[in-house]
Protein 1
Amino acid sequence: MRKQKGFTLIELLIVVAIIGIIAAIAIPNLLTAIQRAKQKRAMGEVRSLATAAQSYATDAQVYPIANSTFASIVGAANVNSDLTPDYIKALPNPDPWNTPYWYASASGGQDFGVASSGKNAVLEGTSAFATVANATPVNTGCFENDIVWVDDAFVVKPEGKQVKCQ
């Protein structure tokens, strides 16, 4: 009888089990890395919008005027015309989670805020700009949390190990 070459069923099952274990370890880390990258992109774009508003304020002595509550930056026609193309080539929109960025100004254009609603697409606790403007900075540990810039710094931003919120 001739000896046949090939893999046995046991050997194939062991290889499939090893691949399954590696995938079970790697996929959650990959998904976390993707969400972390989206957060960093949103932070960069919020910072770019804030820099454009501050550059505009340097020239005009007032931030682009919007209402005193956060509104979609797409709908704020005066913000768009004030900032583009002189201070920012194009407004980044939508954010990495496919929702609009938000903008507000208060006190006749003396203060401003820019926000991304995060993974859950809900702008939580930031509907009233005055509340955010007076808030103390908060570092969040959840992908669903907002990313908010007011005047000259982030007041809500991701920091540290991020987890999935309940």
Protein 2
Amino acid sequence: MQAQPKVLIVDDEDRFRTTLAKLLGLRGVPAKPVGSAAAAFEELNAAAYDVVLLDVRMPEMSGIEALAEIKKTHKNVEVIILTGHASVDAAVEIMRLGGYEYLLKPCDVEDLMAKIESAYERKLAREERLRKEAASPGNPSS
């Protein structure tokens, strides 16, 4: 059986992030809620996460800015953006920066679980491909 993805929830709304963490926990997915981009960076530097659920509108730093920073330093983490405010421009920017998915809040927990699992599978496949490339005989670093 495949391990569950480790999820970091980043949202400035305390009730939303704690409720979502509990709902994911009930489904066997370990999830840590934090309230800001700064707290997310600290957590990502302290522990390994597979998927980040990131709110777009937060004080101090937007989710789009946070996404760009996360992808610079934690390339293998998949980021799913959650927002209550739909915007085609934002969705395009999120995909350009390497975001995995863009979902509107509130979203169905089962739909979110499917997106988390899909993002995790993508992360695992990328890591496996990189391992194979590093181990191939024609690779100068092997």
Protein 3
Amino acid sequence: MSENHWIDIGKVTGVFGLRGWVKVYSYTAPRESILDYGSWFLCFQNEYIRYDVEDGERQGKGVVAKLATVDKRENAAKLVGIRIVINHDQLQPLARGEYYWFDLVGLAVITVANKMLGNVDYLVETGGNDVLVVKGERERLIPFVQGRYIKKVDLEGGRIIVDWDPEF
């Protein structure tokens, strides 16, 4: 399977207890949502090995999980530092007008007057709304407010049309 189909959702950061549980740093929000995927793929030097998630819970600021076939602390220790990924097909479908952030990263950002501003480098959550960080001849921060600033998201065409002053 192509690398483009894999989505990083966390990494194994340590061991927890004696029975093979692992500590996980989750990239999901909320953090414990990482447990909602019935199986994870752990990336060992570009080889993806499937592990079923048997159990798990939020533990302080992190998450702990019990993976099938990992029954000893020594086996869990071998997983420390390994990326946790899922296949794109494991994601829940979104409602119309909703997007996963990773789908927006890399898209060209063009004004309604057809001026290229750059490409989405990453997004930032601000509490009020998400913000596109667009890098071109300079960096721009554009609020991801559909209708007001975001006029069209064209995933197939690889672009976002915005109502944004290029001088701002």
Protein 4
Amino acid sequence: MTFAAEHDVPIPYMQRTRDYYQALGFAPYRWAHFADVPFTPLSTRLAQARVALITTAAPFQPAVGDQGPGAKYNAAAKFYKVYSDSTEAIPDLRISHVGYDRIHTTAEDPGTWFPLARLREAVKAGRIGALTPRFHGAPTNRSHRVTMETDAPDLLRRCREDGADVAVLVPS
């Protein structure tokens, strides 16, 4: 086994994000993290559990410009309220509204940021029990207060309405 080359290091995306927001005139960005995180073990085996999918991907909006793979950052494609849609079909979701690393990825494979097809395969293979009838979209509006007081409770309510035992959160 050999070590990776000296230049082969993780991309410092947290510092890059802080620098980006500061260049826009915002106060230094403080990442949300908690010293005490609640954990609830599953009450059933994953192979019997009903799984909810939560994504930060946005529904495609043709009128607001390029949102395809490799598109430049597009703030007009951002969404600000939790949404839900059926897990029966693969929807047209995009990620141009988030600040991902466009130098090192093209984001051409939607399965990497919206794995609904893979979750369906896991159901067929018996690795998970079932999918909830809906998936849910979590806004990325950069407000800790709105996320904690509005979006997270709304997502939890929707997951409970769908009978979810567990949720898979896939940020883009």
